[in-house]
Every structure is written in C-alpha cells, then in structure tokens.
C-alpha cells in the first residue's frame, strides 16, 4: 500500500502524504500508486515543485490566485492586521474595521443596487448561506411554499450538502446521497455540446429559456424562490453563455417573481474582462456570491452581497424572531478581510481587469489558431478564462472510449512541458493569474501546442 509508492523513500514527503493525507478531488487508491505532486513555493505566475522544477500556474491555483504567488503587499496587509487585531467576529452587534471597509467596498462596487454584505469563508459556505437567506426571506414574506431552487446541469456551486445539491455534476452526487430534494435542474448553456443540428446560438438560448418557463409552470411559479447560475460556468467546462442567453433567462425569472443568484466565485474581480461576470453579460442579480480572487486566495474569505429586496425582509424576520440565527466563527475574519481589501486595491490600481481582457484575448486568439489541430473540437472562453474541448472525431464531437481519458493525457503532457492546466473531462481549462504578461501567455500557447502534438503522435 502506500507507503509503497514505488519510487519514494519511506520518509519522503510523498510517502508521508500517501500515509497520512486524504486528498480532495483525487482518486485515493491511485494516489497510493503515483503519489502527490508537491508544490513548494511560488513566484509571479510560477510555482515550483519540491525538486525545484518551475511550472506556469495556468489555472491560478483553483481559478483564484489573481495576483500571482508572491505579492508582498498582501503579506504586509496580513502581518499588519495580525498584529493589530488577529481575530474578531460579527455576532451580537460586534464589528471591526476591515469587515466594515470590505462590506462598504463590495456593496458599492457590485453592479445593481446592492444593500448589504454577509461574510463567509468559502464559495460553498456562500452558496449555503444564500440558500438559507432565500428560504428565510420567503418565510418572512409569508410565502412558506416558495422554497424550490432552480440550478443548471454542469453547474458548480461547491461541495457542502446544500451547495453540492445545487452543483449539477455527477461526481459531486454519486455515493453522497445527493442532491437534496427541492432543487430543480434545468439545461446548461453549452451550445456546442447541446445544440440541435442547424440551431443558432440565439435559437438555442430561446429553447433554454422556454424549457425554464415550462419547468416553472409545471412546478408552480409560487413554489420557486430562486434561480442559481454562474455567469460563465467554470468547473462544468468553462461554458460561455450563447448570445442572448442571460437576457432571455432573466425575462422568464422576472415574469414569475423569481430571485436571481449570480455565483461570481470564479468570474468576480476581473476574470471575464470586466470587474464582474454580471457586467460582462448584463445580468441584474438579487444576490452575488464572491470568493477566490477576492483575496487572491491568500486567505479564505467569501461574501454574499444582496439587494434590498432580499435584505429588507430578512432584517424584518430577524426582528420578529429576535436574531438572524446564522453566522460563522471566522466569517469576515479581520486578517482575511484586510487581505481582500488590499487585493481589490491592487486590482484597481494596476488596472488588472484591463490586463485580463488584453492577455485573455491573446490567449483565446492563440488557442483559436489551433482549431485545425486534429485533437481540437472547440475553443471557448471570455476574458482571461478559456477551455479547449478535445476530440478524436470532430464531426461526432467524441473523444476516446472512456470520457476524460483524452483530456487527462493532454493535461499530463502539458504538465510535463511545465504548465499546470486543468482537465475537466475532455476539456482543458486555462485561467491564469490576472498579472500574466504577453510573454507568459505565449509560453502557455507554445507548450500547449507541443502537448497536443505529443498526444496526437502517441495516438498515431
Ligand atoms: N462556486 C463556484 C462557481 C466555484 O467555482 C466554486 C469552487 O470552485 C465554489 C462555488 C465553491 O467554492 P469553495 O471550494 O471555496 O467552497
């Protein structure tokens, strides 16, 4: 077993990892065979493994390290706050400076007319909290039957029991006895994969909106509280919405008085080439969920930002009951909040949203130039996030016999070239730090083409 990774010394970090550590999102038995890749340090867009090998982190860790791996100002912000007040909370009428400053910053910078921010520690907690807020609000409004939530296939909203139930990916449900009841599922906006022959993007978007309306009518509009969506689906394959999609979806939701929750955990803070995905797609959400790039992931923090339509009834209900009985010990942690404020300051000062738009265009154009490669089925993306769907048969849009095999092979070849991407079944994703330069984008492109060629020649 494990302590038996064939190549590792018994007390090496690899062997001890296998012995003591259960990984998230990992085939645990396979990990016993091959051991982990141990990342030791980071600098700019690079990380280095424990043998000193450099890799361009073309996924910004988990879509999240906006400022790269060595931003000294974030270290300073954390140390300064740690010395001044290392912990305080927001229960029972308490507060502190970084939490107040961050709440003000988020409420004023989010699009739409937002009212208040509530702090959580992860994207999953933000999603769970938003679900509870939506239910609490329906009760406050005297509509206890208005509780069902609509989420999409391929959605990713996290892994806690409620958030995993919103998630529309089989791996997050299988053997966990999920999803919970009360979550309705509607189709994903994956035009390339789900289009009918000859269907335009606009026709496809109309079809998805019509399906949504049918679902709402079949269930009863008064039973549905909210619709959940990432502006661009991330972990479900970097699925960019087709033309007119959000406009049509929002029209249906408005017709039946259904709240719109925008999960901006990946899109937020510049990823799509604007500060928020909602701005890129003209989305007017009632609730926005923020995390990841908010602190460049140097420390865990997330937020639920909601408008008065949501917050007003919740405040009234808290007065009726005597408290809003929800909150996390570390929610709005002062050190994490200070790091988040400094991250946002840097993104604004250095205009990294514009850099994301510019370098993103370079990346997407470079990937699009590989469209005639025999393994490339579709190149998609927006701003500084992109994916390449790999196929063996371009016409049938199919890869190898086992889904995910081709994606894993190309991603592995890419890693051997010194670039960390992410395979989501047979799509390879790119989501590098917002600080990336043109030369670093070009290096990703060169190495990705080499990885495609390697796998193509292996397949014969
Ligand atoms: N929502 C979205 C859109 C995400 O991409 C993720 C994580 O990737 C989450 C929620 C869950 O965040 P966390 O892993 O911090 O719980």
UniProtKB/TrEMBL annotation:
Keyword annotations from UniProtKB, A to Z: Aminotransferase, Pyridoxal phosphate, Transferase
Required cofactor names: pyridoxal 5'-phosphate
GO terms assigned for molecular function: adenosylmethionine-8-amino-7-oxononanoate transaminase activity; pyridoxal phosphate binding
Xref: InterPro entries: Aminotrans_3, Aminotrans_3_PPA_site, PyrdxlP-dep_Trfase, PyrdxlP-dep_Trfase_major, PyrdxlP-dep_Trfase_small
Gene Ontology biological-process entries: biotin biosynthetic process; gamma-aminobutyric acid metabolic process
Pfam families from the UniProt entry: Aminotran_3
PANTHER family attached to this UniProt entry: ADENOSYLMETHIONINE-8-AMINO-7-OXONONANOATE AMINOTRANSFERASE
Family: Belongs to the class-III pyridoxal-phosphate-dependent aminotransferase family.
Annotated protein name in UniProt: Aminotransferase
